[in-house]
Amino acid sequence: MSEFHGSASPGSPPEPTRTPHPRTRGTALRHRLAELRGPDVPARALDARALAALAANPGCRRRAILDGAGVDKAALASALGAPSVFGQSQFAFIRGNAFEARVKADGGAELLRLVHERLDPGAGRPDGATVPDLAATGPEGRAARTALALREATAAGGWTLLDHPMLALDVAGSPAFLEPDAVVVHPDGGWTVVEIKSFPLLDGSADPAKVGAAARQAAVYVLALEEVAAQLDPAPRVRQRILLVCPRDFSNLPAASAVDIRKQRAVTGRQLARLTRIEEIADALPEGACFSPQLPAEELTAAVEAVEAAYAPECLSACELAFHCRARSRASGAVTTLGRPARAELGGLATVAEVLAAAGGEAGDPDDPAVAALRRAAALRAEALAGAGVPVEDVADARPGAGAEVARCR
Predict the structure, then answer these.
(1) Stated pTM of the model
(2) Please, where are the H alpha helices in 162-207?
């Protein structure tokens, strides 16, 4: 019998098609991202810490496509000859796991006590709280099991502790699966994110930079929880205050602090929404582009440089590719190497050479506020050097066009 449509005899049942179904948009994107990672290279999970760093620099298309494709940026940086020192030490990782296990011992009794004490003292005591089993196959299965557990816990109206739930968040058209330390469901149906960190609370306070990083990470979890809550009717309240649990002083005893993350949640949500969609970046790449660390250095460098980066000094503490991008930024004389504040003040002047030419009167529109400010600063510098007895010729040698300005100042 023929395998083509319309070849069956009249009145016979239609023959099932043997033609493959067209690949859906999601399947095509996953296939394209797998090609970018390289053959047989497993995807690296995109966690909340990476998402928070990506949200802090939404203009970096390079990080967006690498994270979206699940590329191991640490291995990529080593293959490019600019190995990263970014990451958590093994000792800190082991210590953090040990502290988390202590906080969650006995069914999370101590953790729930801290949530009750710091965030919901008016509710009943969390004795006999429920701790559902969230085991399932694959991240999609775990995310579905978590959503079901949240719905059941909200309807039950008691205390429930979800230990390492799995949440899904759409990021630039690609799903990211996130695993917070814990989520607590209150008797009133509200949901709270719990972050457990190994840095200490000394006399009731912690390093502001570390607390800020934890708040930005928790904001990503809150955004993902809000997507789950939006699927329920009525939608439960996702609390905008999270519980940060850390060791007290120099002991291994847990202490907690309530952290308001409304600002971080608003900024992170806005920045993630600004990200260019992953498929748009992938479609703009050259044919055959691949980020596999097994490729020759020249080919790998060409693939990486085909994607625009937005380097800033802050990347050094947040991205494994920061040393590579910094070297390229310096080589091109980009003003972003000086930091985002300086870049913002310089307007359309994108390189150090353009800045010096504008300051020396050799280029730039005099009506441009940035150019006018640079020329005024150059004139003041020249005047100060001249007042200090520096010869006019030396000042002129230090910066093109300065000699004429010194003469005018005199």
Answers:
(1) 0.73
(2) none
